[in-house]
Amino acid sequence: RRVHGEGLALGFSFLLFNMVKHNNVVPNAHFHKDWQLRVKTWFNQAGKKKSRRLARQAKAAKIAPRPLGSLRPVVHGQTIKYNAKLKFGRGFSLEELKEAGITRQVAKTIGICVDHRRRNRTVEGLQQNVQRLKTYKSKLVLFPTKRIGKPKTGDSTPEELKNAAQLSNRDILPMPAPAKKEKARAITADEKKERVFPKLRLAHINARYVGVRAKKAKEAAEEGAKPAKAPKGKKGGDDE
Q: Helix, strand or coil for residue 107?
């Protein structure tokens, strides 16, 4: 009994001196996870690939001669990491459709995606997508809604309808090629003499006070357009 009691005392002291500090969780790891029962395999990958290809072919035959995809705008990615790269957006903004002369109701019927939430922040992006819409509109072949009857305004001619071919690519118009980076070169003497900071400050000031100056110019124009008031006469009788 005495030996057994000494063993308990020694074991308790060993735990006291070898336990981790602070009030942490006692290590109690579970490694028997039965991972063999939770392994997921993809042995049907080749079969699914064939099924998708057949589904695309069936859809193309069903909607022919319409293209498989829809026209989408070219936009820039978000954040500093991706804003220099181009990608296809969700849909064209209402301003871009207005500049191209296409209503939002008609755009949805001729294969153009519309996103009423998008806003154009730059003139370059607006012009790029407007030109994209105009190019698509010039190449568009519109079939009449009814097979029997006179074609409506905007429908293609019978010759164009015969030569129309279906586009199998989802990208109706390709992505524009990115701008090439300029190679490093020596700085010229005129560039060394140029003072850039004053120009930036002046442009910043002009952009800041454009509204105030326009308001003052409008008020000055209104004041100049008003007829001059006749001078008031003196009160009282004539001097003798």
A: helix
